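Quick start: what a row looks like.
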Amino acid sequence: MFWLKLLFSLLDRFSPATSAKMAFRYMSNPQVRKLREFEEEVLAQSSQEVFRFRGFDIQSYFWGLEGNPVIFLVHGWEGQAGNFGALVQLLLDKGYYVIAFDGPSHGRSTKAPTSMFEYADLITEMIGKYRPTRIISHSFGTVTSVFGLLNNPEVHLEQWFIITTPSNFKDRIEGVKKTIGVGHRTVKRLIRLLEDSTGHKIDDMNVDTMGPQLKNAKEVVLIHSRADKIIPIEDSRKAQRALPNAELMELDELGHYKILWSDELKDILAKRLRSYVEA
């Protein structure tokens, strides 16, 4: 990473246009993180299906009895379905049909350049197809879920559990900016490349502006650790103010990914997630 940052630093100074093109390729090719053994084991217990989406083979996973109310798991950018492995048995015990997937160029899905907007379009399609009664989303999966719910106003969520969230897509750009060490000139050109390639404005992917429009989520619970070093808890505080019917539960000493397999999260879901027989 040192040499990568050094290269970007030089390009940012002498050729910000080239730096922006390289940053665009970096953002368009999410890194695939290795799953833990227990996460792999949970995926192996699922029924699996591959479907086509814009040239991608999307890997999807199903647990439980088809016909039971659907709970939909939406991973974050550079995440994958296996990240929810610690929660699946709890959700099955509650009586849900659990559906998860690996987004474009994530997990076991086809690897090719993609974007947050393409990911959001996939979520829109899947919400419309499976019509979940509950969603659990993590990180940037929340931003894409807001987008997907707004585009499926006929789908009504009883409960939505948000496990950390940025407040807008610009946070992703800021994260990349810090990772590769570029400045304003590169970022300005990077934003232009993103908008030109996707046909969207980056402000279109903003919980602060999209959230107040959301009318189809009955109960929203945000869960975020003050120790999260990837997304600061202030982002969830902003999201809480923007999303109707939302409350925020602040935890301690849990990292951005560790929270997903923490006892604290499982305890919250055990107490707050209603069984389908009560829905």
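That is the whole record. The first helix runs from residue 2 to 14. Strands lie at 47-53, 56-63, 70-74, 97-101, 134-138, 159-163, 220-225, 246-251.
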